[in-house]
Amino acid sequence: MSATQSAPPLDSRELGGGLEYVACNLCGADDSETLYDAREPDTVRDMVRTFRASGDDLLIDPLVCCRRCGLQYVNPRPRASDIVHAYSTGDDPTYVSQVASRERTFAGAVAHIEKLLPGTGRLFDIGTAAGAFLAAARARGWEVDGCEPNRWTAAWGSTRYGVPIRQGEIFDHDLPASAFDVVTLWDVIEHTPDPSRVIDRVRGLVKPGGLLIVNYPDIGSSIARALGRKWPFLSSVHLYYFTRQTMRRLLERHGFEIVEMRPHIQRLELDYLLSRGVMVSPRVSRWSRLVARLFGLANRQTPYWIGQTFVAARRLALQP
Ligand SMILES: [Zn+2]
Fold first, then answer.
1. d(CA 29, ligand 1 centre) in Å
2. Which of 9, 233, 245, 264 has its CA 20 to 30 A from that of 218?
């Protein structure tokens, strides 16, 4: 496949009731085993609440694993077109309440990227939400651009930071080919209905020798395996659950070579983090929030790791 062709759309079929059945996004097979059955199948979905940057509703759809390649994904799932529409609408004050912590995380991330690709250049952030990463990169001299499907968050970020945030998906924008030194996907790929198509699009944007940066929640990580169904990232907002092996395969298939894969520590305010611990233990979450408030620690920016994995991959000059 040449760089100018786009990947074929994901093989899917409608099931009715707003659901669709999809084939494996990595190898195309329709040969999977169920890891977790649907939970509360009669739940009435609030699509706009579920599909937002700060979404953390419990995963209610079945999680399956491809027997051929090991990719774990939600199937059946809400129709992709409905998911994309839900992301574009609604507001997300919960997400933007944490921008100060994200700015700090991203400042460190930009410095790390500069170690892998010395100097600065042009950078594009896909699914940039409120643009905190774009702001952090611009502050270090990068020429930045980005896109975000949610109208409210994109407008909020443009106003706060004065960075360019194009509203919509990456497929909605006409961008110059092979023009970017770095393209980033921070906590985005697991939300997209068709990750192979996204990475294919990214390959067309990154200069040969340039970097693709991905951060994703790794279901093969020690903490994900230890927590099982209580792993906080196991949420209806995530459609795909990569391991290091399946992420490597996805990127290599699209002409990237892995440069680095490592645990990625992020920061959030302590009270926000503990509120999300309700999935692991409601009682511990409630009491620890109370204690944090008593000691005046609720707003403290707190490093945490529950399986987030940072990947840097270099675009090869020639297709394999
Ligand atoms: Zn597969």
1. 5
2. 9
